[in-house]
Prior knowledge:
The protein has 550 residues and is an alpha+beta fold. It contains 27 helices and 14 strands.
Amino acid sequence: MMDDKAQNISPYLGRWVARLRGKxxxxxxxxxxxxxxxxxxxHKETPEIIYMSFPFAFPPLLNSVCSALxxxxxxxxxxxxxxxxxxxxxxDLDFAVxxxxxxxxxxxxxxxKTDFFVLDESLDTARLIVSTLDGVRDILDFAxxxxxxxxxxxxxxxxxxxxxxxxxxxxxxLDPLNGAADLRAKKIRACSETSLQDDPIRILRAVRQAAxxxxxxxxxxxxxxxxxxxxxxxxxxxxxxxxxxKILEGPRPDASLRAxxxxxxxxxxxxxxxxxxxxxxxxxxIYDVWEHTLSVIQHLDGLLADLAPGYSAEKTNxxxxxxxxxxxxxxxxxxxxxxxxxxxADRSLRALLFFAALYHDISKPATRxxxxxxxxxxxxxxxxxxxxxxxxxxxxxxxxxxxxxxxTIIQNHMRFHFFVSRMExxxxxxxRKAIYRFFRExxxxxxxxxxxxxxxxxxxxxxxxxxxxxxxxxxxxRILLENYWEKPQExxxxxxxxxxxxxxxxxxxxxxxxxxLLLEAxxxxxxxxxxxxxAEAIEFGRAWVKENQK
Length: 550
């Protein structure tokens, strides 16, 4: 008889097994499952139930939690356990306890000497945030079982890959739904038949996790997702927004958005997008508006990856990507720092830019017209689009700063193409005056406009984009970014040489809008290189007042 030393035990690592006379006869995700499986064939014998441990890296904080709760029944659950099994670093640790989760969190907070706060007293949930010296934040959430037992808690979760628990006290894994097997098979499977009906936001979460891990959604779960899409309006706008922004922040957002479209999500989530499909456009566009939008998002994702710190141009033999890294590669660090800033602690600027890309042509269906030559036009789609995205942003309860940034991007996204057209047609670079006005109108959003403009161009022409047009666009981008990051006091934000008091004193003006116009005219003259000293500014102002008070 072959014992477990002779058997190949690798399939059983991390699982519970039933063993008789040294031979493994059955296995399961829990002790009970292993025993039931053994009894089917050896119902007259009593097997030994053991856990087949295997080495994997736990977050260091887990030891601290164990030390703070030496005798407590507590489990690491959800995404953190999934990430550990995938050898991914996780800074979000979810813990489940039978009861008194808030009190448990308080004990851990006291041991770790950190603050905690109650998330929902009625649901018995609390959170700790632990910050390290290098600025990394670990979030520890504690919650009471959702149901009478851990088993019922796990079965009530969204997908099997997130329904795995680690018993901190026994140092064993509990996997009643075989989520670890689904992880190995790279499959997303719902925990129950009603999982998607119980919480329709899981539709978006399934798509996001499929993209994040490179997994496939199993057919039965996909059908359940389609059946539950009409329930999405029952979900709060904040939860809809948060899952959508996580999709936009994650890998391959274009593929995720296409998956949402195929599932029929948009009529219930972002109904404006449904109008884009099938709206034809004249050359140089090669796609309808919807396909163009997805192409822009795809190229924006690739462009940001190509301009990320550490990227090597040797990784590609694409001439257009090579030109991109050659012309703009020196701004990798500045671009990265741009996206580390935040208009809201809960959402990134990167996700906000992708949301703007998703809506940048949202008003083309409403503004479509055909001129006498047969050319399709979309007059003022940028201005109307700014209003549409602000309405959607308000429904999503975005902050005022985020709404303002979105409006700025949509309202000004055609300006980059105007610069490119002049550069390509007559080698006319943006003037200092044009550069000043571009950043005066867009501020820090000017960087977003440059990046979106490049992605928009590639999403417009696709494989028909020639090297000359792309080079012209990169020259415009380089000029704008160079002025923004390397010459800000010359052309972007010249230092103020005179103020309102000077204007009133020097020109005998009265307080009012005319003073503001004068000061802006002086700063624009500085950006153009016409004024560089206070004396020149005062003299320029005298001439301007004389001209404008006629």
